[in-house]
Structures are given as structure tokens and as C-alpha cells.
Amino acid sequence: MKEEKRPEWVPIEQSEAFASTIMDGTKPPFPENPPIKKRNISVEELVQGVKCNDRAFLAQAITLIESNAQKHKDKAQQLLKLLLPDTGKSIRIGITGVPGAGKSTFIEAFGTMLCEQGYKVAVLAIDPSSTLTRGSILGDKTRMERLIQQKNAFVRPSPSGGALGGVNRRTRETMLLCEAAGYNVIIVETVGVGQSEGMVRDMVDFFLLLTLTGAGDELQGIKRGILELTDAILINKADGENKVQALQTASLYTRMAHVFQPITDGWTVNISTCSALLGEGITEFWQTVRMFEAETKSSGVFEQRRLQQQKKWLYTSIREELEQRFFSQPEMRAHIFACERDILQGKKTVTTAVAELLTYYEAL
Ligand SMILES: Nc1nc2c(ncn2[C@@H]2O[C@H](COP(=O)(O)OP(=O)(O)OP(=O)(O)O)[C@@H](O)[C@H]2O)c(=O)[nH]1
Ligand SMILES: [Mg+2]
């Protein structure tokens, strides 16, 4: 296996940023739990706090990014701009799987193992169902108990509410903040329902599908589209009586693998089994990720993908922003409703209505 050229991870206490904050002999300006909510913190303070990986400042910065208030948005963007040079130095891993596949259990085992090896792990969740059920966040608190206790781990539940576009922006920007804080493995988790897998695929370097053996129909519960987004498929719960069947499923997928087009140039989808509960197959999975990183970095595919993701994100953002502005203009509402009525009454064509509406909008 080729060694990748990832910069050496330096414990935060030994980092230049941290040293510079304590040089004047006073006590560090970022104690464990500063009462920062009580006052209005400046962007500069936030920058320093995030760079020192002070969790209270990082959490405050994320809250700023999640806010919809315009003054918070402006401040958040200033912050991100200043932190941008410190971002990008991580491996970003997306994990998807149907409810109950074992994602939380897997992340607990995987994340804890990485922390014990000295990596700094941030876990971000995109859970389209959480706003409805509110169950999974509570569940994760108990399922990720060991991970949460690691000093090198940062676990952030899904931002609540809002359209997928908003969740997309907030997750991407939170990921950047975590990188600036020195987290070098970022895990983005999503439940395998809805459109969130494609969104996560577009923000990560490596995408894992965690799945189970199916009863009878091995492909049950797996949307074909997801298979085509993945760099690895792990069949979880390969323990006890289920182990033999899990191995059979893995070999079935391996035989099928040539049918779907690999998403990453030069990389063959890795298919294997694991037991998140027993911690088996976790080290092997990390080796796969490291091999992927080494190979795609040396071929240039890694960097190329990140650039493509940035570009796609730009165009997606433009579209979303335009749409948001168009529909949120109070003056437009009456015109839109009038057009809708005319179209339903057969008095106007859709194309004419769109042209008229855009003319109104541009004149505002
Ligand atoms: N036997 C066995 N059980 C497992 C394994 N991994 C997870 N489980 C169990 O499966 C159940 C669901 O696991 P979770 O980790 O909560 O699954 P999840 O994918 O996070 O589920 P959602 O958050 O609902 O999407 C729990 O009862 C786990 O204890 C495994 O490797 N083997
Ligand atoms: Mg879960």
C-alpha cells in the first residue's frame, strides 16, 4: 500500500496557533467552557477560538452558520473567509444506509478507533427524518457514548428543519469549520432515504454504503442509484448466525460489481463485511479508505473531484439563491398568483407567464 502525503497531525497543544495565544504569559484566552454566549464575540475571536479547537468557540461558530438572520449570515461568511486557508486538510467520508443498518454503531466503533490512533474525528449528520421523528438524535447520544467521550471527537447532530438546500450549505460550511479546527477525518452520515445521498456524495471524497443481508431478495432495501454512488459497500451485522449469509451477500455483490459503473475513476468498488457491534472489519475499512486516498491523490482524481464539487456547489447555490429571491419578493406574489389563475383557466401559456414574471422581477 502506498503511503499518502497527508500532513502530519499535530496535537492542538503543540500547534503554532495555540502557542501564539499563550505567549504573553497570561492564561490561555480560551478556557474549557468560556461564558461566550453572554457577549457578542468578534469574528477575530471566533477565528482564534476555532483555530485553537476550542469546542465552545467551534460550537458558537456552527450556530452562527446555522442562523438565518442576515447579520449572522454576514458574520459567518467573514469567519469562513478568514478560515478558508486552514480548510481542506482532511479526508471526508460519507456514510449512508437504511434506518437500522447500523450507521451509528459503526461510526461509534470507527470513530473511536481513529481517535485512539490520534486522528481528530468530526461527525456531522444529515437526517431528513429527524425533524419529524426527533428520535435518532436521542438514539445517537446513547449509541455514540464512547465516541462522544473522546477528546479528539466532535459529534454534531443534524441541523434541525429547513429545506435540503439549507441543510446542504450548513453541512458544507460546518465541515470547513471542523477542518479549520484541526479535524482530519470528517464523517458525514445520512439515512438512506430521500435525496440526501446524492447531496452527501457531492461533498465527500469517499462514500460508503452500509447495508444488511436481505431476506430472500438480496437487493431489497437498496436503491440501485445508491450503488452507483459508492466507493465501498459494507455488509454489516456479519456476526452470529448472520455471518454466513453476510459473506454470501458480499460475494454476490462482488460478482455483480462489474455491472455498475464505478463513480471514482480508477477505483473498483470495495465490497466487504463487518460487525459494527463486535468491531470487526473496521480496521480493514480504514485501510481501504487510506488506500483510496493514496491512489486517488497520486492519480490526481482526489483533487479533481474536490474542484468539481466546488464548481457544482457554486452553480447549485446560484440556482437556489435566485429561486429564493424570486419567490420571497412580496411584489412578485400577486403576479405569480395571477399567472397561476390564468394558466388554470386556459387563458395563458406557461411559457408566456414565465417570460412576463421574469420581466416583472428584473424591473424590481
Ligand atoms: N448483531 C449486530 N447488531 C448490530 C450491529 N450494528 C448495529 N446493530 C444493532 O442494530 C440496531 C440499529 O443500529 P444503529 O446503529 O442504531 O443503526 P442506524 O443505521 O444508525 O439507524 P438509524 O439511526 O435509525 O438510521 C441496534 O440495535 C444495534 O445494536 C452489528 O454489527 N451486529
Ligand atoms: Mg443512527
Automatic annotation (TrEMBL):
Keyword Hydrolase: yes
Source species of the chain: Ectobacillus antri
Gene: meaB
Pfam families with a match to the protein in the record: MeaB (PF03308)
Family membership: Belongs to the SIMIBI class G3E GTPase family. ArgK/MeaB subfamily.
Protein name as annotated: Methylmalonyl Co-A mutase-associated GTPase MeaB
Source organism phylogeny: Bacteria, Bacillati, Bacillota, Bacilli, Bacillales
Gene3D superfamilies: 1.10.287.130, 1.20.5.170, P-loop containing nucleotide triphosphate hydrolases
Keyword list, A-Z: Hydrolase
NCBIfam families: lao, PRK09435.1
Enzyme class, UniProt record, top EC level: hydrolase
GO molecular function: hydrolase activity
SUPFAM superfamilies reported in the protein's UniProt record: P-loop containing nucleoside triphosphate hydrolases (SSF52540)
EC number: 3.6.5.-
Listed PANTHER family: METHYLMALONIC ACIDURIA TYPE A PROTEIN, MITOCHONDRIAL, METHYLMALONYL-COA MUTASE
